[in-house]
Design brief:
The structure holds two protein chains of two kinds. Chain A is of the alpha+beta class. Chain A is about 45% helix and about 20% strand. The N and C termini of chain A lie far apart (about 115 Å). Chain B has five helices and five strands, in the order βαβαβαβαβα. Classes of the chains: A alpha+beta, B alpha/beta. At the A-B interface, helix 17 and helix 20 of A face helix 1 of B.
């Protein structure tokens, strides 16, 4: 056997194994098997080798084995399964745990499949019956009606008890239902009762009637009386659960002088049994003194009461278990419900132990950290959520003081975008549970909104201030600029009076002019004018923050406005001083189906100009290597919005600048260059005057993009009380 | 014929610098620092055009224009103000004697104002 094994020692070993062991080749042909396998299939190895499962099992079964073998080969790893194995030859069937292992030679070629099957039938059956008893015992007991004796006891145990009791005391014994029908198998029954009386229909009915009567519930002791069938001595005791009669335990089939052969003969005739056979059997019946039988009956009574007690306890236990199960189910449901709630929260919820280990990790936490709950739980918080490391001190503080620690705003950068989070720490103060729950809310939107509101508040206050002081500043500026203008004209202007006055003073106008030129007076005058003009521009810009109603709203073609502005920018003298707008490439991407937008054309142009100027100035700062300065101007529409994008490929802006870029007087330009109002004026025009949106995005070092979004409304969005006049 | 211009402004440097410029442009120029003074002057002397500031002590520029335009129907007015929010009232827009152009202080150059003055006086 197992001739593939060269060593007889190993052969012996394999054959000694009680498990079935076999080897098949890749095609499913048996190569070898052990002795247990031979025994099970009822044939010798020599008749097995060369055959397949199809020779020993029906087709369906063989198909199953074959498929499973192929699966093991495909997986190239041992595989365990539980299955029924049936021998066609012997009819034996076992429930087996099989392990199939692909076997390869040194070169890695598949030799075959080694199979080992262990008979676990007994274990399986025990498991099944245990399961059944458990399930019946733990069935919710709604009323006593449902109590069935068989559900309360292991019948095999009882049978054993009954058998041993009968053997030890020399009486017959059986446990029956209340109506006398048997539950257990009879033990130690005499031939008269078992083979003669109970074999007749009348006799059997009388026996059941008698067992029902003698097994009645009595509290004062066993019932002892002649059997209502054959008349031998019987005794019985009822088994009850909580006062309810559920079974009878009967003993007896003994005789003393009370019974006579005549009596049995009469009875045999009555139930139509063989009279002589009955008399013969009667003589074999155990004789027992009345006294002794009473002793045995007393033991029976005690045992029956004990069983009743056990039955009662079993029921109680079943109820407790049922309750427990129900509570457990409820608990599971509540746990489920709670975790659903926790997981449906839009906040990150993380529970931590006093040691800082994660105890709870909701779905949002998984999403935010990209770590699954099962990987996070039990880990130190700072390891799985590094940005909360700073919070550990607060967590400990919250646990120590048992107070909620809220509203710590954390800001961080995620993929170049600022995110703001609110971190709240709730200490857990319930009995026995220490630790804390950390809630993290993404409040980026709210913070951004707040920043925008602050922004426009700032602008409004600047506007209010400007309106009040514009007059006061404009007057002196008018004086300064007016005088400077006059000075220039009275020296360099082509005025007759200049000549006349010079002559009267005895100097030549030319030499006066020459002197002043050498002393750089004209440059100074220009300086005065320039400074005055700048101050005037600042005041005028600040005034644009005040709410004015006299805007010229009409339907404008945004692309046309943008083109006009680009032209304007290219020719603006002031712009040319700092950079040549014509050196900038411009790509235009205009949606040809763009509808006209209701807006103030002049103001929109001002916005475009500010953005273009800002971009052009920024691009001067960048050293271009392979590319050239470039504007991409887009005009497009979404479902309800008109969008204008102005993108430059300048140096970009960092996060700190981006945050403040629309603030009044915020500038990154050197002192004296920008007023710091251009972008905030633009912001004000777009958001306040046009109910639109102005946003900026940037990739530092690469590009900056301003996006203007305006309502694409059918109806004028603004009270058109000042139409184009 | 030399035209006479009256500058009505309570801010002396503003009034003065404009006066100097207009004199250099060969206008005859008079100055008044309140509407009341200006009306008084108009009673005494012929004036062709008044450059009017709006915010004034006592009667304001708008009140002055209303009062003066009925008494001197030939008189022309140009508004020169530091109040950027000012709009010419609709009733006055119709008046041919009131310039529809408003000049806001500070003017970087006076030439546009002079140009408007000459246009009005044609």
């Amino acid at each position: 056997m197992l001739q593939a094994m060269p060593d007889s020692y190993f052969r012996g070993l394999i054959n000694a194994i009680p498990d079935l062991v076999w080897l098949k080749d890749a095609e499913g042909v048996f190569l070898a098997c052990n002795a247990a396998f031979e025994r099970f299939f009822g044939t010798l190895q020599e008749h097995i080798i060369g055959k397949t499962d199809y020779d020993f099992s029906d087709k369906e079964q063989a198909d199953f084995y074959r498929a499973y073998d192929k699966q093991v080969v495909a997986a190239n790893a041992p595989s365990t399964n539980e299955e029924w194995i049936i021998s066609a030859a012997t009819g034996a069937r076992i429930f087996a745990e099989t392990i199939k292992t692909p076997i390869r030679d040194d070169a890695g070629r598949l030799v075959g499949i080694l199979g080992i099957a262990r008979d676990i039938t007994a274990r399986k059956l025990a498991e099944q019956s245990l399961e059944k008893r458990l399930s019946t015992l733990t069935k919710p007991l709604t009323g006593d009606d449902t109590i069935v004796f068989e559900d309360l006891f292991d019948l095999e145990d009882l049978q054993r008890l009954q058998d041993q009791f009968a053997r030890a005391t020399g009486v017959a014994s059986i446990i029956t239902h209340v109506d006398g029908t048997p539950i257990t198998r009879p033990s130690n029954f005499c031939r008269l009762c078992n083979d003669i009386i109970r074999k007749t229909e009348k006799g059997r009915a009388n026996c059941y009637r008698s067992d029902a009567a003698i097994g009645r519930l009595k509290s004062d002791g066993p019932a002892i009386q002649p059997c209502l069938s054959g008349g031998l001595w019987d005794a019985g005791a009822g088994i009850s659960v909580g006062g309810r009669h559920i079974a009878n335990w009967l003993i007896g089939q003994v005789r003393d002088e009370t019974q006579s052969e005549d009596m049995i003969r009469n009875y045999a005739r009555e139930i139509e049994a063989d009279e002589n056979a009955a008399a013969d059997a009667f003589r074999e019946v155990t004789t027992m003194s009345r006294k002794r039988f009473e002793h045995v009956a007393d033991v029976l009574f005690t045992l029956a009461n004990q069983l009743s007690e056990i039955a009662y306890r079993n029921v109680q236990q079943a109820r407790v278990i049922a309750d427990l199960k129900r509570t457990e189910a409820e608990l599971a449901q509540i746990r489920n419900y709670l975790s659903n709630i926790i997981n449906s929260m839009p906040s990150v919820l993380v529970g931590v132990s006093p040691e800082g280990l994660v105890t709870q990790w909701n779905v949002e936490a998984e999403r935010a950290s990209r770590i699954a709950a099962q990987d996070a739980i039990g880990q130190p918080l700072d390891k799985v959520f590094p940005r909360l490391a700073k919070q550990m001190e607060r967590v400990r503080e919250a646990m120590r003081t048992r107070t909620v620690c809220s509203n710590s705003l954390q800001s961080r950068n995620e993929d170049g975008e600022a995110r703001h989070e609110d971190v709240t720490i709730f200490p857990l103060v319930a009995n026995g549970i220490d630790g804390a729950v950390i809630r993290i809310d993404d409040v980026t939107q709210r913070v951004n909104l707040e920043q925008m509101m602050v922004q426009s508040e700032k602008m409004m206050s600047v506007g209010g201030l400007a309106a009040g002081m514009a007059h006061e500043i404009n007057n002196p500026l008018a004086g300064i600029l007016g005088y400077a203008h006059n000075i220039g004209r009275r020296i360099f202007g082509d005025l007759k009076k200049n000549e006349i006055t010079a002559k009267e003073c005895g100097v030549s106008l030319e030499s006066v002019r020459e002197y002043l030129r050498r002393r750089e007076i004209p440059k100074m005058l220009d300086g005065i004018r320039e400074s005055g003009n700048r101050a005037a521009t600042i005041v005028s810009n600040m005034l644009s923050f005040s709410r004015k109603t006299e805007r010229k709203y009409e339907y404008n073609d945004l692309a046309e406005l943008l083109d006009k502005t680009l032209e304007l920018a290219a020719n603006d003298y002031n712009l040319k001083k700092y950079y040549d707008f014509r050196k900038i490439d411009i790509i235009r991407e205009y949606d040809p189906k763009m509808p006209r937008i209701y807006c103030d054309g002049n103001e929109m142009q001002q916005v475009f100009l500010n953005l273009l100027k800002n971009g052009a100035e920024a691009m001067v700062e960048k050293a271009y290597e392979s590319e050239r300065p470039l504007f991409i101007c887009r005009v497009k529409q979404t479902s309800s919005k008109a969008v204008v994008e102005i993108t430059d490929n300048g140096p970009g802006i960092d996060e700190a600048t981006r945050k403040r870029i629309f603030e009044p007087f915020f500038t990154t330009k050197e002192v004296g260059r920008g007023t710091g109002l251009g972008l905030s004026v633009s912001y004000f025009i777009v958001t306040e005057q046009h109910k639109g949106c102005l946003e900026v995005d940037s990739a530092p070092g690469k590009w900056t993009r301003f996006t203007i979004t305006l309502p694409l409304a059918e109806e004028p969005p603004h009270d058109a009380s000042y139409p184009d006049s | 014929m030399t035209h006479r211009i009256l500058i009505l402004d309570d801010d002396i440097p503003v009034s003065d610098s404009l006066a100097i410029f207009l004199e250099d442009e060969d206008f005859e120029v008079a100055q008044a620092s309140s509407a009341e003074d200006a009306l008084d002057y108009l009673k005494r002397r012929r004036v062709d055009l008044v450059v009017v500031d709006l915010r004034l002590p006592g009667m304001d520029g708008q009140g002055f224009i209303s009062a003066a335009k009925d008494r001197w129907p030939a008189l022309k007015f140009i508004v020169y103000t530091g109040s950027p929010e000012f709009q010419i009232p609709t009733a006055m827009v119709q008046e041919r004697n009131v310039s529809n152009a408003i000049f806001l202080k500070p003017l970087p150059e006076f030439e546009p104002l002079v140009h408007e003055i000459r246009r009005m006086l044609r």
